[in-house]
Design a protein that fits this description.
By secondary structure, the protein is α/β, with parallel strands linked by helices. It has 15 helices and 21 strands. The chain folds into three domains: about 120 residues, Immunoglobulin-like (Sandwich); about 220 residues, 3-Layer(aba) Sandwich (Aldehyde Dehydrogenase, Chain A, domain 1); about 70 residues, 3-Layer(aba) Sandwich (Aldehyde Dehydrogenase, Chain A, domain 2), CATH 3.40.309.10. Its main location: secreted.
């Protein structure tokens, strides 16, 4: 027993590390940044913290720490900096390994002098905790009208026609609300027939159609779309916050969207049959994925809510030709009906089957009208089919995810599930248990799995389905008193 005790004391020894130096970010000292010394552990064990300090106002620091280990420690230095850049608020992290020769046995006797390090270039490829920091700030900044860059806020609620921001000629506007609180976000200009007429009858100074048909236009359009995607990426955090504020989808979902970069990549990597634009297109943008307007080009785009209007600033900043992208916010009887009826505008509608029928009907109202160029992307049922030999854990999880994606407000949501009889009861039991764990709450709260329905109409529709299911004895739902 005595021998074992002696051996143990000999094999575990105190080892220390001492580091000092200065950090810069560009030409400025990196003041009040957190610097840590850690002992990196392998496997699931967390790294051991040996010491922590803040840099002074001149970016300088000195830090030492010690630990008892069996073998040689693997020391590293980490620097953390809460960055409040205009476009990329985040917590930045960088790490460097400390050479083994600076490990001190017992009392620290040798310092690791790192000198002066400029982190500006390193921070361009650093690990970022953007989501966590932004989500903590987004609810209080965006909801209270602060934190929105001027280039997004100034014209966000106006129409965008022929490269100009303008109010509705009628002076009408409509209110868009935060579905989580019911509070007003903004008064958005309501486009009507006169503004639609301005778009179709105007003669803006822009490149001719024949010039656009030239061989050089496709590479140019690819560059413009890439610029637009880059600008959206630059302002990803604030756009995601506005999207969540307007639609109620969880902020983590809004922030993770990267379709803009995907579309930009396709523009010069996939070759279609003919590089010739069709005439002006009226894109009826769905309210559940409004930023998909980026996929359209050469089109007056119709939509009705707040964040996509902010996107118009990017069209100008990216250098799109005048008149290429136009946005009319409004409703069916006003701007939508005029676009649907006009002979000079091809139509592309994305939305419900019910409204799709109405738009097609409007397209035939004009005496000279036809629907030769009319495409529709309508809602579907998208059922899941679960067989008895399926992995039930995976099947339940997948069905759950596909049902509740975007608060069940997506045409691809699997709102029906067919299950083979012999596993039906078990599937239902597991699904019920998983659904009970789902957290519905503030979309800016990282603990929330699901936010509110996009507006009161959608919420009432869901409640009607619930009541119908209860009457038919298919479901048992208990709503908390005073809550929807």
């Amino acid at each position: 027993m005595l021998l074992l005790s002696v051996v143990s004391s000999y094999s575990t020894r105190v080892q220390g590390i001492a580091v000092r130096g200065r950090f810069l970010c560009g030409r400025e000292p990196l003041a009040h940044a957190t610097v840590k010394i850690i002992d990196k552990d392998s496997g699931r064990d967390p790294d051991d913290l040996l010491g922590e300090v803040l840099t002074d106002s001149d970016g300088r620091f000195s830090l030492s720490g010690a630990t008892r280990e069996d073998g040689d420690i693997e020391a590293a230095i980490k620097v953390y900096h809460d960055c409040n850049d205009e476009h990329t608020p985040c917590q930045r992290k960088m790490m460097w390994d400390i050479p083994q020769r600076y490990n001190n046995n017992g009392t620290v006797s040798e310092w690791f002098e790192i000198g002066e390090i400029n982190l500006e270039l390193g921070f361009r490829s650093e690990e970022r905790d953007s989501l966590g920091m932004l989500t903590r700030l987004a609810g209080q900044t965006v909801r209270h009208g602060s934190g929105v860059p001027d280039h997004l806020e100034e014209h966000s609620a106006k129409l965008f026609i022929n490269d100009e921001f303008m109010n509705a000629k009628s002076g009408k506007s409509f209110e868009t609300q935060d579905p989580a609180t019911g509070n007003k976000i903004a008064d958005v200009a309501e486009g009507g027939p006169r503004r639609c007429s301005c778009r179709r009858e105007g003669r803006p100074s822009k490149p001719s159609v024949s010039a656009r048909r030239g061989a050089g236009w496709t590479p140019r359009s690819a560059v413009l779309i890439q610029r637009l995607a880059n600008l959206m990426e630059r302002d990803r955090q604030i756009l995601a916050s506005l999207e969540t504020l307007d639609t109620g989808k969880p902020h983590s979902v809004s922030y993770a969207a990267d379709l803009g970069l995907s579309i930009a990549g396709m523009s010069d990597h996939f070759t279609c049959t003919r590089h010739e634009p069709v005439r002006a297109c009226g894109q009826f943008i769905p309210w559940n994925f409004q930023l998909l307007m980026q996929a359209g080009s050469w089109a007056p785009l119709w939509l009705c809510r707040f964040p996509p209007c902010s996107l118009t600033s990017f069209l100008r900043e990216a250098g799109f030709p005048e008149g290429v992208g136009n946005i009319l916010s409004g409703f069916g009887p006003t701007s939508a009906a005029v676009v649907a009826q006009h002979m000079g505008i091809d139509k592309a509608f994305t939305g419900s089957t019910e409204i799709g029928r109405l738009v097609m009907k409007e397209a035939q109202q004009h005496q000279d009208s036809n629907i030769k160029k009319f495409t529709v992307d309508l809602g579907g049922k998208a059922p899941n089919i679960i067989f008895a030999d399926a992995n039930l854990d995976e099947a339940v999880e997948q069905a759950h995810r596909e049902l509740f994606f975007h608060q069940s407000q997506c045409c691809g949501d699997a709102i029906r599930t067919f299950v083979e009889g012999m596993v039906y009861d078990e599937f239902v039991a597991r699904s019920r248990e998983l659904a009970r764990k789902r957290v519905v709450g503030d979309p800016f709260d990282l603990e929330s799995d699901q936010g509110p329905q996009i507006d009161g109409n959608q919420g009432n529709t869901v409640l009607k389905f619930i009541e119908a299911g209860k009457r038919e004895g298919l479901i048992g739902v208990r709503l908390q008193e005073g809550r929807r």
